[in-house]
Each structure stands twice: as structure tokens, then as C-alpha cells.
Structure prediction request, 1029 residues.
Amino acid sequence: MATLRELADRVGAKIAGDPDLQIRRVAAIDEAEEGDITFISNPKYRNQLLSTRASAIIVPSSVKPAGYNLLISRNPYLDFARILTHMQGPRPEARGVLPGAMIDSSARISENSTIHPGCIVGADVKVGRGSVLFPGVVLYEGVEIGEDCTLHAGVVVRERCRIGNRVIIQPSSVIGSDGFGFAPDGTRYFKIPQVGIVVIEDDVEIGAGSCIDRATLGKTRIGRGVKIDNLVQIAHNVDVGEDTIIVSQVGISGSTRIGKHCTFGGQSATAGHLSIGDNVTIAARGGVTNDVEPDRIMAGLPLMPHKEWLKATTSYARLPEIRKEISRMKRQLEELEKRIKKG
Amino acid sequence: MATLRELADRVGAKIAGDPDLQIRRVAAIDEAEEGDITFISNPKYRNQLLSTRASAIIVPSSVKPAGYNLLISRNPYLDFARILTHMQGPRPEARGVLPGAMIDSSARISENSTIHPGCIVGADVKVGRGSVLFPGVVLYEGVEIGEDCTLHAGVVVRERCRIGNRVIIQPSSVIGSDGFGFAPDGTRYFKIPQVGIVVIEDDVEIGAGSCIDRATLGKTRIGRGVKIDNLVQIAHNVDVGEDTIIVSQVGISGSTRIGKHCTFGGQSATAGHLSIGDNVTIAARGGVTNDVEPDRIMAGLPLMPHKEWLKATTSYARLPEIRKEISRMKRQLEELEKRIKKG
Amino acid sequence: MATLRELADRVGAKIAGDPDLQIRRVAAIDEAEEGDITFISNPKYRNQLLSTRASAIIVPSSVKPAGYNLLISRNPYLDFARILTHMQGPRPEARGVLPGAMIDSSARISENSTIHPGCIVGADVKVGRGSVLFPGVVLYEGVEIGEDCTLHAGVVVRERCRIGNRVIIQPSSVIGSDGFGFAPDGTRYFKIPQVGIVVIEDDVEIGAGSCIDRATLGKTRIGRGVKIDNLVQIAHNVDVGEDTIIVSQVGISGSTRIGKHCTFGGQSATAGHLSIGDNVTIAARGGVTNDVEPDRIMAGLPLMPHKEWLKATTSYARLPEIRKEISRMKRQLEELEKRIKKG
Prediction:
């Protein structure tokens, strides 16, 4: 519970209506009940205000309907997230190593962490204060986990990989699996040992079921603040720059370097050994087969500027029509030629 | 073991040949041995009858070869499945909570369930009668599992998610991972807490390694009878209608609503916040970027009616030829113009 | 530690420089320090020799710079892999069944294997000498694992599946999940029991988070020497020929047969019930919807010879331009016709 005034002060917003209103919960605009606060970030949804039962609404300054309790925000979506985070309350208190967790005697686990039952922690592992390992997490030998991390159930981190602070990993993701490297030896393949590591920097989030391969030599790096969705594949020796967003089912091939503040849409992919600049956006299902300059918005396979891609795809659906047109013109041309020859 | 008569009675089929024939096993037509029953659902495979060693064959009424023991069926494929199910025998008897499972004292586990070693069950969890948790299943606090469910090894269900009756989840799938939601805050991203849940209704099957994200607020819903294959991504707040089929490696983006009886082919995908009607088929690798009306069969990216897509892709391979044709015509045109100007 | 002479003898290479040089480690050319050996496999990277601090370099005979300690190799990439393997040392000694592993009393586990804590091994399982199960591996009843296998944390192998010798499976992969088979029964679907198995032959490697479904009846087969990357889907009754390479996020649909020595690029896929010959290459994102003859290099959806695909994709980006060209020609034609009619 918090008053509208407390929430507004917390995020630096203004109020219209009753500052002492008690807020119980954050809810979606169509599911909110009395006592809830909800939000509108886009003025085009303002009509939903008419039917919501929420007691208060976070709105942009361009939407200020009379007769509502409002929290007027410069960035309603961000303030919704901040208020929702506040209403969640603080992280639960650390509970230490719980019965049923198996910890190697050489591991150094902060007393202020929580290690759930079924976790298995190898030799020389370090886990920092405030970190939580949910049931069934496996840390191979020499893994380092920073402070205030959350590793969900079934996460596996292989030997010597290093994870920074405030990193969140959703269930069943794998950090440090072997890169896919084989040297042809006649008709067979010889496995190239993958002896490098993965380094995940601070404030990264990794979705469920994603895989980040260890480097052959050296390291695969996920830069500070990177957000990776579910079922994403990051191959060996990839380097992902700070604050880049990688949406679900993306595949990044080996040794590719991605800049800062990039966005990869769902199911997009890159070939290996490429360099992609800062602030690049690759649209969903885009396929990157060459280096990309900074600040580009690209799409398609072959990759092209997004605007060109939109035009090309529009034409694509009309290909059969285009072919008919060409056939017609061809006949016209032949007739014209005949007539001219005759004439 | 069962007689041909018993099997025919069970599925309501007719018999030609020996009703007292003892059937030992169901087998593929090219692998069957004496004592086996096999099936033919498509008359075009009738030639395989000549070489099979099966003792009996499930056939459609349009295929009734003389000299075989036949089970004549209105729906041979369905009756094959039903007979195979019958020959499997009943579900094994419940064994209760086995040693090596760790169950929170507040959990309410039916005595008629089976909880294998290595399962970890959190506070306030409910598991209904007849349900089986294979080794290493993790249920976070407040999860509810209905009756006769099967959760295979390594499945993770996060806090408060609800699973109906007769639900099957293959190994390593994740239910209730955080949705991928971040609010831009300058150049960085602020995590939006994902406080909703996932609701999986009765008779759903989910493949291996699939991920179904919890809602930001409210719920992600998988409707009754939905079948989801391996490595599928379902984002937060998605709603999937009853009896819809989602094939492997499909990605459904956030807040999209899918109707009943739809089919999504392998590697197809949707953008977020879309509405897709009932009985829609999206062909493999189709990319849905706009709402889709009911009863449509669609394909491609951009998405188009499947028939148009077939034509467009045929033209696609001929693009270089089309360009040559255009160049030829251009030259012809220029020559004609010259001649007319001269003339 | 090894001398340059020892390494050269081991791989059958020649030496230039100091044969008694002590080599401490294998490192990438830009990260190598004194005491390291590195490699150059492609002469185009020879300029990197100028800046490397490595004490010795594996080179092809076409690159023999003076003043360096060289290991001159017929196949530098393969010899790099072999030397790296040698420098890793032998496999750690077997440690037997470690405390915290749960093994059914009917399982037959070689004394010379290593079963880590948190592994759960079912009835009648066999594990051969030299094999290692990392923490949290689950083997259902009747599974057979050969010799010198490595199953990483969280791997699940379901009932009766058989794995050969020297097989490596990265974390969280699933072997033997149910195939995706349902018989329509009116508007609902009836599950077809999947009672077959998966057979994985010798020297196969499977990446992280991949899924290989068991056959409906009979077996899904992964042939000797096949290498499968992360997040790959292999459906029921698929047969993959020896030494085939399947890159990340590929999907192979049910009952498709793939030849030997094929290569499937990332995110490529096949429809079901197809036959693909030996030595076929499918480029990244290729979509196979018909049988493919041996020795073909194919790409695209629709699938076409790779050379044609390159031409078609080049044309694709120019589609809007092509349409403009056609419009221009159409106008020209109409004008010509008018003039001729007038004339």
C-alpha cells in the first residue's frame, strides 16, 4: 500500500486529484479494480479511460481528463515500471545455503546469498552477496557470480565463466557450453577444444532456454546492460556491446562483434566474423551476411535498408502480376515490330 | 496381448479374417513382425501390403485386399492411435512422493500422484491425483497442477502459474519465465516486473525446450487442447485459443491473440499485439505482421494468401530471367523508336 | 608444458627455429603471450604475425616468415586442434558414483565412470567405462550410454534411448522427448503414443538446448560422427547420415532422411517425409520442401541452387526499380502504338 502522493514523489511526477488516495496494486487498464493504479502511455488508448475501474491512472501530460486521480508523468511507461517495482517491495531476505543444496567445500558463498535446494556448486566457485540461486542451478568449477544476481531454476553455468552484478538469468538457460568448432580431417571432423570462457557484465538479463557458448580461446562477452530474450543462440567468441537488445530466437554466429544500443528483432540472425556498428536495428527475421555501418535500420535476407525492404516486399507479392505484365508487353512489342516491318 | 476382435470392438471397426488372432504389438508397416498389427491410412501406400510381415492391418474401407486379417476403419490413423494407446496399458500406479524429492511442508500433494527423486516443490503448491512429476521438476511457490498431468524431467514452472488436467509437458520446458519487458530510461533499460502468471488449460501438450512467458500483469493463456511442439516461444500476455496447433520453433510475440483451431507451421512467427481469427493456418516460416481474418490460409513474409505465395515464390526463382527479359524488351523498344523516328 | 619438437612430432609437422622451445599454452594470435603457441591457417592473416607476442606459430607451408619459431603444417587448423587437445591433458580420472547421485539398484554403472551429484539414473540403465554425467543429468529407465561419453548438466535422456561411444551432449539438451503426433478426432486431437526410441551412434556431438524426438514406432537415428549445434530440433523418425553437420536453430521435420556429409546452415529447415542425398549443403535459412539429389548446394525458400539464389536475391532488392522500369516501358509502348496508328 502507498498513497498517490508517495508514488508521485518517488518518480518525480505531478498529481491531479486526491493525493491521499491509497493504492493497493498496479493493474492493466482493462483488469484494474478499485484501489488499483493503471497507466496510459499512448494517447491513442485514451478511450479506455472511460471503462476502467482503476482508482488512479498514470498519464502523459498530453492526456489529462477531468474527474480522475492522475499521476502526470513525463514518461508514463517508465514510471509504471518504477511504481510496479516499488510496489513489489524489496528483495526477500537472504536465507543462506538451504538444506538440499550441494556446495563444494572450496566454494566461497556469501552469507547474504540464497542457495535453494537442488543447486550444485563446484570447486572454487564464488557467489556474491544478495545473489539467489533457485532450485537446480548448476555451477561448474571456478564460476564467479557477482552481487544481487538471480539465477532461475535449471540454469547451468559451465567452468570458469564470470557473471557480473545484478544479472538475471531465466530458467534453463546455458552459459558456457562448448562452441561449435570442428576441423575437417578427411571425411570426418575433429573436435576443437573450447577452452575460453563467457563473461557476462553487470545488469544483463538473459531469457529462458537461451545458450551462450564459451570462446574457443579468449572470451565470449555480453556487455553491460544487454537484454537477451528466450531461445537465443550466441556462438563462441561473439562480443555484444552495451545496452543491446536481442529478441527471441535470434542466432548470432561465431566471432561476430555487435555494437552498443543495437536491436535485433525476433528470429533475425548473423553470419560469423562480422562487425555490426552501434545503434543498428535489424528487423525481425533479418539475415546479416556483411558488416553493417552504425546507425542503420536494416531488414530482409539479403539484408537491405528497412525502407527499401518495405518496397521490395510490396513488389514481391505482385511478382505474378509483374510477370503477366511483361508477357503482355512482349506480345505488344512483337506485334508492333511486325507492323513496322510490314509497313 | 489382445485379439483382433477385442481391438475392433474397442474402436468400433469391422473385421475381415480371423477375429481370434492374437495381437502382440503395434508396429510400422516396414518393421512389423508376426503377431504385430500395422496400419495403412492412405491408399497410395497399399503396395506396402505386399511386403509387410504384420499379422493384421488397420485399413480404410477403400483398401480391402483379400487374404489379410483386416481391421476396417472409418479413420485408420485415429484407430491406430487408439489401439496403440490401448496396447500401452493403463498409466502406472501412483507411487507417492519418492525418496530424494524435496517438498515444502505447506504443499498439498495428492497421495495418488508420483513425485520422482530430485523434484523440488515450493510452498503452497498443489498437485492433483494421477499426476506424475519426473526427476528434476521444479515447481516454484503457489503453483497448481491439476489431475493426470505428466511433467517430464527438468520442467520448471515458476510462481503461481496454473496448469489444468491431463496436461503433458516434455523435458526442459519452462512455464512462467519473465516476459521480455523493459522501459527505455535514457540510453539504458529499466526492467518491468512481470507479475502476471501463465494459465495452461486442460488437455494441452507442450514439447521439449519450449518457453511460455508469464504476463506483465494478468495472464498468458494456453487454451484447452492446444498442442505446442519443441523449442516454441510464447511471449507475455499471449492468448492461444482452444485446439490450436503450434509446430516447432514458432515464435509468438507479446499480447497477440490467436483463435481456435489454428495451425502455425514450423518457424513461423507473429509480431506483437495482433489478433488472429479462428481456423487460420500460417504456413511454415510465415511471418504475421498484421491481424488475420478467420479461416484464412496464409504464408510468407510479408504474409499473403497461400495460393498467392505459391505463385510469388515460383516467380522469385525466375527473377534474374525476368530482369534479362526486361533488358531485352528495353533494347527492342529503343530500336523501334529509332526506326519510327527515322521512318 | 611441451617442447616445440614434441608438439611437431605429435602431429607430424616440421619445425623452423628452436625445437627445444617450451610451450606453455595455445592462444589466439592477438591474445598470445610469451610461452604461447598460436596459428595462422589462412595466408591472408599473415600480417598479424607482425604484432603477435606468441613464441611459436603453426603455419601452412605457404607462410614461412624468417625469424619466428614455426611449426610448419599441411593442415594448420587441424594441427591447432590436435595440439590444443594434447595440451588439455588426458580426461580426468574416473571418480565413480559421487555422493548425491541417485542410482536405481538395477542400473549397471561402470566403476570407471563418473556420476556427479544430482544425477538421477533409472532402472536397468547401463553406463559404460570412461563416461561422465555432470550434475543433474536424468536418465530414464532402460537408457544405454556407451564408453567415454560426456553428458553435461541438465541433459535428459528418456526411456530406452541408446547412446554410443564418445558422444558429447552439451547442457540441457533433451534426447527422446515425444514426437509431435496427433490424430484429428473431430475438432480435437488424439495423442499418438510415441513408443519408439532415439539411437545416437558413436562420435556424435549435440549442442546445448537441442531436442531429438523419439520415433512414433521404430527409431530416430543420428548417424556416426554427426555434429549438431545448439537449439536444433530433430523430429520423430528422422534419420541423419554419418558425418553430417547441423548448425544452430535448424529444424528437421518428421520422417525426413538426410544423407552423409551434408551441411545444414543456421536456421535452415526441412518439411517432413523428404529424402536428402549425400554431400548436400543447405545454406543458412534454406527451406527444403522437396527431395534433394546428392551433391547439391541449395539455398532459399523456395529452395533453389545456391548460385541461382544469389542471383535471385540480388534481383529482389531491385524489385521496386524493376517495377518502375516496367511502368516506363509500358508508357513507351503505348506512345509507340499511338504514333503507329496515327501514321
